[in-house]
Write a structure and sequence with these properties.
This protein has 308 residues and is mainly α. It has two domains: 56 residues; 234 residues, MetI-like fold (Orthogonal Bundle). Helices cover 74% and strands 1% of the residues. The protein has a two-stranded antiparallel sheet. Strand 1 and strand 2 form a beta hairpin. Helix 1 crosses helix 12, helix 6 runs antiparallel to helix 9 and helix 7 packs antiparallel against helix 8. The longest helix is centred in the N-terminal third of the chain and has 56 residues. It starts with a helix and ends in a 5-residue tail after the last helix.
């Protein structure tokens, strides 16, 4: 009887300790998730609260439809369209550079490269992600722009094309790595079945593998473009600080992030319209990023393939 009681007590103690441990782990995980949610709420709260004084001075209609961005001299003109256009030029240009190169390099690494070559190329490519963004800015200013002058002699020292190229190089490892992971996740059985039906390597890649990994590929594109949308130092140095509504990539432009950096240096007094414009631009940039993330989520759900 004593043996049964001691055994029962030991089981209760064991399972009691295990239950407490699982509860502690559960609450730790919950708190970690809560930190992310509260951080997002805090960012939104700060942006909205600090933007209200700005929109009390400048009407939202003028802000979102104006074509002139000239914070100084007072009272200034705050039409954000030049900053939006500059940001989109960099983002689209970087995407045109990085998306095809990243996808093709991912296909090569996953489907064609020998194991030894893949083990060398993939870490080398991902090494680009560890380079500081300010280095990319000077790389665009002192290396990419002089090369572009051989093709476009009239190009300015700071220009949108150079900024788009260096940002494209920056997001290239992100596109390549995520696409390669998505392609590698396609079951091997699908490839072998296509080979058994007489398909060639290219047919298997283009008609089986890439469509099977389409959700991950599309998500990598959107995430990379979101990264390009919020890039700061590289475009500040390479693309310049000229807020003009121009679509010429050979001229200097200014992005939303570049304006936030230049204005945050301390020249604008706290509480002034120019200072508050930082938060108005910031909440606009946040809105663009949120929309792109929502689009990425919808695309993943639409093209998602489930394998058993």
């Amino acid at each position: 009887m004593s043996l049964k009681l001691s055994t029962s007590a030991r089981y209760r103690r064991t399972f009691g300790i295990r239950g407490v441990s699982e509860a502690v782990v559960k609450w730790i995980c919950f708190l970690c998730a809560l930190v992310s949610v509260l951080t997002t709420i805090g960012i939104i709260t700060v942006l909205i609260s600090q933007s209200i004084p700005f929109f009390q001075e400048v009407s939202p209609a003028e802000f979102f439809s104006g074509t002139v961005w000239q914070p100084t001299p007072e009272p200034g003109k705050f039409g954000i369209l030049p900053l939006i256009v500059g940001t989109l030029i960099i983002t689209v240009g970087a995407g045109l550079f990085a998306v095809p190169l990243g996808l093709l390099s991912a296909i090569f690494l996953s489907e064609y490269a020998p194991l030894k070559l893949r083990n060398f190329l993939k870490p080398t490519l991902e090494l680009l992600a560890g380079i500081p963004t300010v280095v990319y800015g000077y790389f665009g200013l002192f290396f990419v722009t002089p090369l572009l002058r051989h093709v476009l002699p009239q190009i300015q020292s700071s220009n949108a094309l150079s900024g788009a190229i260096v940002v494209g190089i920056m997001i290239l490892p992100l596109v390549s790595s995520l696409c390669e992971d998505a392609i590698s996740a396609v079951p091997r059985a699908l490839r072998e079945g296509a080979y058994g039906l007489g398909a060639t390597k290219m047919e298997v890649t283009t008609k089986i593998v890439v469509p099977g990994a389409l959700s991950g590929i599309m998500a990598s594109f959107i995430l990379a473009l979101s990264r390009a949308l919020g890039e700061t130092m590289a475009v500040t140095l390479a693309a310049g600080s000229n807020p003009t509504l121009a679509f010429n990539p050979a001229k200097a432009i200014e992005t939303m992030t570049a304006y936030i950096v230049s204005t945050s240096k301390g020249d604008a007094g706290v509480g002034t319209v120019r200072y508050n414009s930082i938060f108005a631009v910031g909440i606009t940039l946040f809105g663009f990023t949120m929309v792109m993330n929502l689009v990425a989520t919808r695309l993943v759900k639409k093209f998602r393939q489930v394998y058993s």
